[in-house]
What does this fold into?
Amino acid sequence: MRATEVRPSGIERTFGENELIVSKTDPRGVITYANDVFLRISALSEDQALGSPHNIIRHPDMPRAVFKLLWDTLEQRKEIFAYVLNLASDGAHYWVYAHVTPSFDRSGRLLGYHSNRRRPSQPAVAAIREVYARLLDEERRQSRTPDAVAAGMAALERMLAERGRTYDELVWDVTDGGAR
Amino acid sequence: MKARPETVDAAALDEAVRLVTEVCERACNGDLEARVPVISGSERAARIRIAINGLLDHVDAFVRESGAASAAAAEGRFHRRFLTQGLDGAYRAAAEQITHSNQVMSRTAAQFADAARARQALADELESAVLTVSEQVATAATEMGRSANGLADFARVAVADAERGLGTVSSLRTSSDEIRHAVDLINQVAAQTRLLALNATIEAARAGSAGRGFGVVANEVKNLANETSASSEEIMSQVNTVQQSAADAIGVLEAVTNRIREMSVLVEGIAQAVDGGHQIEDVGLSQLAEVLRAEVSRFVSTIRAS
Ligand SMILES: Cc1cc2nc3c(=O)[nH]c(=O)nc-3n(C[C@H](O)[C@H](O)[C@H](O)COP(=O)(O)O)c2cc1C
It folds into this structure.
């Protein structure tokens, strides 16, 4: 898909401290709304973004386990926070601190998903890079995708057990600068 | 586009007004999924769209954050703060207020947890203290019950012994009465013998020298009678002493018996307090200790569960 088409240029892009990158998807993860900040930072036109699956901005250095956890959590109708490295269509990359939540209608039926992304702090990015490097290392030893996802999840669980934290707590430790 | 800019702009603006109105109405009714779709043909319409969508994005973000942060606080996940980043002005002020409230809740929750821990510790202490006490009470009760029963048995035996003693002393009194009777009889015989001896002496004197031998005999008989009554006097005085002693002994034995009977009543009271009475509601000390233990462990498990 796109991630294979766009080659990372190694150029880092950032966005404003008070800006929110917003997108909405349908229940399958197809983009139904993207705000102006999203389009600007991802170097996408509205036409390109709307109707595309959200992996349109997937970066090859993102561990699969993180997205597995994201979808597992959303399926439980729960919110999730995740640090995500994204790839703009021009090859630039940018880190976000994403808050992804399900959207329901009045009767509680799932309408789709929503993501607000904020600019992460430098120390948070440094801390999460280390975590993701370990997951990626485990995933890349596997040739089949399902094996890679399983290996990444296992590595994540080991890491959390080592630190005696839940995933949620780890993410907030990183956010609060208390990463160990 | 350049040919008739005003007309194109006007139509696009009309469309924009219609779409914006519709989205605002949906948003007003709490549908924060609504966003103004792409409006082409007008720079101004595009700007309105971005402004309205930006407003909705911020309201949406605030609503999602406040809901999720409060829910997390209610579940005790205090690490999940309200993310104020990306929110400004009134949004941020309200967000900071919510964060502050959550911190207060977190502190209260921590204090609650401390209090609960302290209560658990107290419950543990209470339980072990009551367990020890009730065990000791139960042991003491068994011991006391055994002693009281032993005492009661002892008292019964003592009363029986004293009663037997009383019988013995009473029969002593009867026999001394009989002795006194016999001595009276002896005295009478002695008095008559003395009279007889006197008469014999007078008759012997009248017989002159022929009665001299008889006079000696009569004199001996008189002496014998005198000695007999002297001995009877002595026996009588000894019998009187014995009778006095017997009367004293009876008084003492009766007093002892009465004391032991009183003691028996007290001991019976102790035994009932320990073992329980004959009525169902008369619960004994050991049962009370068991009831106390059961009540306290029920109380303690209620405290632990709360
Ligand atoms: C609301 C929402 C927002 C998402 N945002 C991103 C994102 O910013 N970057 C990303 O790579 N994946 C995002 N995803 C996850 C993608 O749907 C997808 O799972 C991920 O890119 C992995 O793609 P892959 O399965 O092709 O490897 C998002 C999903 C949802 C539901």
